Protein backbone atom coordinates (compact mmCIF):
# COMPACT_ATOMS: atom_id res chain seq x y z
CA UNK A 1 0.00 0.00 0.00
CA UNK A 2 1.58 3.26 -1.12
CA UNK A 3 2.34 6.27 1.07
CA UNK A 4 -0.60 8.22 -0.34
CA UNK A 5 -3.03 5.56 0.89
CA UNK A 6 -1.37 5.54 4.30
CA UNK A 7 -1.77 9.32 4.56
CA UNK A 8 -5.46 9.09 3.63
CA UNK A 9 -6.15 6.46 6.29
CA UNK A 10 -4.23 8.38 8.94
CA UNK A 11 -6.33 11.46 8.14
CA UNK A 12 -9.62 9.56 8.34
CA UNK A 13 -8.70 7.94 11.65
CA UNK A 14 -7.41 11.20 13.12
CA UNK A 15 -10.83 12.71 12.38
CA UNK A 16 -12.48 9.91 14.31
CA UNK A 17 -14.07 8.50 11.17
CA UNK A 18 -14.24 4.85 10.14
CA UNK A 19 -14.56 3.84 13.79
CA UNK A 20 -17.58 1.53 13.88
CA UNK A 21 -18.12 0.20 17.39
CA UNK A 22 -19.87 -3.11 16.85
CA UNK A 23 -18.52 -6.21 15.05
CA UNK A 24 -19.92 -7.36 11.73
CA UNK A 25 -22.37 -10.23 12.04
CA UNK A 26 -20.36 -12.53 9.80
CA UNK A 27 -17.31 -12.00 12.02
CA UNK A 28 -19.34 -12.89 15.12
CA UNK A 29 -20.50 -16.11 13.44
CA UNK A 30 -16.99 -16.97 12.28
CA UNK A 31 -15.55 -16.56 15.76
CA UNK A 32 -18.32 -18.30 17.70
CA UNK A 33 -18.45 -21.30 15.37
CA UNK A 34 -14.76 -21.98 15.06
CA UNK A 35 -12.65 -21.01 18.08
CA UNK A 36 -12.38 -22.04 21.71
CA UNK A 37 -12.98 -19.01 23.90
CA UNK A 38 -10.48 -20.08 26.55
CA UNK A 39 -7.88 -17.32 26.32
CA UNK A 40 -5.53 -19.50 24.29
CA UNK A 41 -6.87 -19.29 20.74
CA UNK A 42 -4.88 -16.72 18.78
CA UNK A 43 -6.81 -14.92 16.03
CA UNK A 44 -5.49 -12.09 13.85
CA UNK A 45 -7.45 -9.22 12.31
CA UNK A 46 -5.56 -7.95 9.26
CA UNK A 47 -6.46 -4.32 8.69
CA UNK A 48 -8.02 -3.90 12.12
CA UNK A 49 -8.72 -0.17 11.76
CA UNK A 50 -10.01 1.20 15.06
CA UNK A 51 -10.21 -2.28 16.53
CA UNK A 52 -13.89 -3.25 16.61
CA UNK A 53 -13.15 -6.89 15.81
CA UNK A 54 -10.02 -7.09 17.95
CA UNK A 55 -11.94 -5.77 20.95
CA UNK A 56 -14.90 -8.05 20.27
CA UNK A 57 -12.66 -11.12 20.19
CA UNK A 58 -10.77 -10.06 23.29
CA UNK A 59 -14.05 -9.65 25.17
CA UNK A 60 -14.90 -13.22 24.14
CA UNK A 61 -11.71 -14.51 25.77
CA UNK A 62 -9.77 -14.96 22.56
CA UNK A 63 -6.17 -13.75 22.38
CA UNK A 64 -6.79 -11.14 19.73
CA UNK A 65 -4.17 -9.56 17.50
CA UNK A 66 -4.55 -6.72 15.03
CA UNK A 67 -2.43 -5.03 12.40
CA UNK A 68 -3.18 -1.90 10.41
CA UNK A 69 -1.33 0.57 8.21
CA UNK A 70 -2.69 3.47 10.28
CA UNK A 71 -0.87 4.36 13.50
CA UNK A 72 -3.92 6.39 14.54
CA UNK A 73 -6.10 3.31 14.21
CA UNK A 74 -3.63 1.08 16.04
CA UNK A 75 -3.18 3.57 18.88
CA UNK A 76 -6.95 3.86 19.29
CA UNK A 77 -7.29 0.06 19.36
CA UNK A 78 -4.60 -0.34 22.01
CA UNK A 79 -6.14 2.47 24.04
CA UNK A 80 -9.50 0.69 24.19
CA UNK A 81 -7.87 -2.66 24.96
CA UNK A 82 -5.96 -1.11 27.85
CA UNK A 83 -8.95 0.82 29.19
CA UNK A 84 -11.07 -2.32 29.30
CA UNK A 85 -8.31 -4.64 30.50
CA UNK A 86 -8.60 -6.92 27.49
CA UNK A 87 -6.21 -9.61 26.26
CA UNK A 88 -5.29 -8.18 22.88
CA UNK A 89 -2.71 -6.17 21.01
CA UNK A 90 -2.34 -4.21 17.79
CA UNK A 91 0.62 -2.95 15.84
CA UNK A 92 1.40 -1.06 12.65
CA UNK A 93 2.05 -3.33 9.68
CA UNK A 94 1.05 -3.83 6.06
CA UNK A 95 -1.07 -6.70 4.79
CA UNK A 96 1.79 -8.11 2.73
CA UNK A 97 4.40 -8.09 5.54
CA UNK A 98 2.89 -9.58 8.68
CA UNK A 99 5.24 -9.36 11.70
CA UNK A 100 4.54 -12.84 13.06
CA UNK A 101 6.16 -16.27 13.09
CA UNK A 102 5.16 -19.03 10.73
CA UNK A 103 2.25 -21.24 11.82
CA UNK A 104 1.25 -18.87 14.63
CA UNK A 105 -2.52 -18.34 14.48
CA UNK A 106 -5.52 -20.60 14.87
CA UNK A 107 -7.45 -18.13 12.75
CA UNK A 108 -7.38 -14.84 10.91
CA UNK A 109 -9.72 -12.42 9.22
CA UNK A 110 -9.38 -9.58 6.74
CA UNK A 111 -12.67 -7.69 6.59
CA UNK A 112 -13.12 -5.01 3.94
CA UNK A 113 -9.42 -4.30 3.52
CA UNK A 114 -7.74 -6.27 0.75
CA UNK A 115 -9.58 -4.50 -2.06
CA UNK A 116 -7.65 -1.33 -1.23
CA UNK A 117 -4.53 -3.02 -2.62
CA UNK A 118 -3.04 -3.56 -6.06
CA UNK A 119 -2.75 -7.06 -7.48
CA UNK A 120 0.86 -7.70 -6.48
CA UNK A 121 0.10 -6.67 -2.88
CA UNK A 122 -2.98 -8.91 -2.86
CA UNK A 123 -0.95 -11.92 -3.98
CA UNK A 124 1.70 -11.27 -1.33
CA UNK A 125 -0.94 -10.74 1.36
CA UNK A 126 -2.57 -14.10 0.68
CA UNK A 127 0.82 -15.82 0.83
CA UNK A 128 1.36 -14.15 4.20
CA UNK A 129 -2.02 -15.42 5.41
CA UNK A 130 -0.97 -18.93 4.50
CA UNK A 131 2.38 -18.52 6.23
CA UNK A 132 1.10 -17.29 9.60
CA UNK A 133 -1.83 -19.72 9.88
CA UNK A 134 -1.30 -22.97 11.71
CA UNK A 135 -2.08 -26.22 9.95
CA UNK A 136 -5.88 -26.55 9.92
CA UNK A 137 -6.15 -22.83 10.77
CA UNK A 138 -9.19 -20.99 9.45
CA UNK A 139 -9.59 -17.70 7.61
CA UNK A 140 -12.32 -15.24 6.66
CA UNK A 141 -12.01 -12.63 3.94
CA UNK A 142 -14.52 -10.01 2.75
CA UNK A 143 -13.80 -8.16 -0.51
CA UNK A 144 -15.73 -6.11 -3.04
CA UNK A 145 -16.64 -7.56 -6.41
CA UNK A 146 -17.44 -6.18 -9.85
CA UNK A 147 -21.14 -5.93 -8.99
CA UNK A 148 -20.43 -3.13 -6.52
CA UNK A 149 -21.64 0.37 -7.46
CA UNK A 150 -18.09 1.71 -7.14
CA UNK A 151 -16.85 -0.51 -9.97
CA UNK A 152 -15.73 1.67 -12.87
CA UNK A 153 -15.99 4.92 -10.88
CA UNK A 154 -12.60 6.45 -11.57
CA UNK A 155 -9.42 5.80 -13.51
CA UNK A 156 -8.53 2.16 -14.21
CA UNK A 157 -4.87 1.48 -13.41
CA UNK A 158 -4.95 -2.33 -13.63
CA UNK A 159 -7.58 -4.82 -14.71
CA UNK A 160 -10.57 -4.22 -12.38
CA UNK A 161 -8.49 -1.82 -10.26
CA UNK A 162 -9.38 1.87 -10.08
CA UNK A 163 -8.41 5.14 -8.44
CA UNK A 164 -11.82 6.14 -7.09
CA UNK A 165 -13.32 9.41 -8.36
CA UNK A 166 -16.85 9.69 -6.93
CA UNK A 167 -18.59 13.02 -7.60
CA UNK A 168 -21.69 12.42 -5.46
CA UNK A 169 -20.82 13.47 -1.91
CA UNK A 170 -23.88 11.62 -0.60
CA UNK A 171 -22.36 8.26 -1.51
CA UNK A 172 -19.90 6.47 0.77
CA UNK A 173 -17.42 6.25 -2.08
CA UNK A 174 -16.97 10.03 -1.93
CA UNK A 175 -14.87 9.49 1.21
CA UNK A 176 -12.74 7.00 -0.74
CA UNK A 177 -11.79 9.41 -3.52
CA UNK A 178 -8.16 9.04 -4.50
CA UNK A 179 -7.93 5.54 -3.04
CA UNK A 180 -6.92 2.45 -4.97
CA UNK A 181 -9.71 -0.13 -5.16
CA UNK A 182 -9.65 -3.60 -6.71
CA UNK A 183 -12.86 -5.45 -7.59
CA UNK A 184 -12.65 -9.23 -7.49
CA UNK A 185 -14.22 -11.91 -9.67
CA UNK A 186 -14.90 -15.47 -8.54
CA UNK A 187 -12.38 -17.22 -10.81
CA UNK A 188 -9.66 -14.86 -9.64
CA UNK A 189 -10.34 -15.79 -6.01
CA UNK A 190 -10.25 -19.49 -6.83
CA UNK A 191 -6.79 -19.02 -8.28
CA UNK A 192 -5.55 -16.84 -5.41
CA UNK A 193 -6.67 -19.36 -2.77
CA UNK A 194 -5.65 -22.54 -4.59
CA UNK A 195 -3.07 -23.42 -1.91
CA UNK A 196 -5.80 -23.51 0.75
CA UNK A 197 -8.46 -26.17 1.20
CA UNK A 198 -12.17 -26.11 1.98
CA UNK A 199 -12.48 -22.79 0.19
CA UNK A 200 -16.01 -21.35 0.10
CA UNK A 201 -16.90 -18.26 -1.93
CA UNK A 202 -20.27 -16.66 -1.30
CA UNK A 203 -21.75 -13.26 -2.09
CA UNK A 204 -23.66 -10.62 -0.17
CA UNK A 205 -25.42 -7.74 -1.94
CA UNK A 206 -26.89 -4.82 0.00
CA UNK A 207 -28.91 -2.16 -1.82
CA UNK A 208 -29.26 1.52 -0.90
CA UNK A 209 -31.67 4.35 -1.77
CA UNK A 210 -34.48 2.05 -2.89
CA UNK A 211 -32.13 -0.09 -4.96
CA UNK A 212 -30.44 2.77 -6.80
CA UNK A 213 -26.99 1.46 -5.93
CA UNK A 214 -25.56 -1.48 -4.06
CA UNK A 215 -22.60 -2.82 -2.13
CA UNK A 216 -21.51 -6.19 -3.50
CA UNK A 217 -19.04 -8.35 -1.59
CA UNK A 218 -17.56 -11.80 -1.77
CA UNK A 219 -17.14 -13.70 1.49
CA UNK A 220 -14.34 -16.23 1.37
CA UNK A 221 -13.81 -18.88 4.04
CA UNK A 222 -10.74 -21.09 3.86
CA UNK A 223 -8.52 -23.51 5.75
CA UNK A 224 -4.80 -24.19 5.63
Q: How much strand content do the residues show?
A: 25-35%
Compute the number of structural domains: 1
- Compressed to H and E, one letter per element, the order equals HHEHEHEEHEEEEHEE
Parts with pLDDT < 50 across at least 5 consecutive residues: none
Helix fraction bin: 25-40%
Q: Which outline best applies?
A: globular
CATH architecture: 3-Layer(aba) Sandwich
Q: What is the third-level CATH name, the topology?
A: Rossmann fold
Protein name: Class I SAM-dependent methyltransferase
Domain Methyltransferase: 43-137
Keywords: Lipid metabolism, Methyltransferase, S-adenosyl-L-methionine, Transferase
Family: Belongs to the CFA/CMAS family.
Question: How would you characterize the overall build of this protein?
Answer:
With 224 residues, this protein is an alpha/beta fold. It has a single domain, classed as Vaccinia Virus protein VP39 (Rossmann fold). 29% of the residues lie in helices and 31% in strands. The strands form two sheets. It has a seven-stranded mixed β-sheet with strand order 3-2-1-4-5-10-9, sandwiched between helices. The model has no long low-confidence stretch (mean pLDDT 91). Residues 43-137 form the Methyltransferase domain. Belongs to the CFA/CMAS family. InterPro entries: CFA/CMAS, Methyltransf_25, SAM-dependent_MTases_sf.
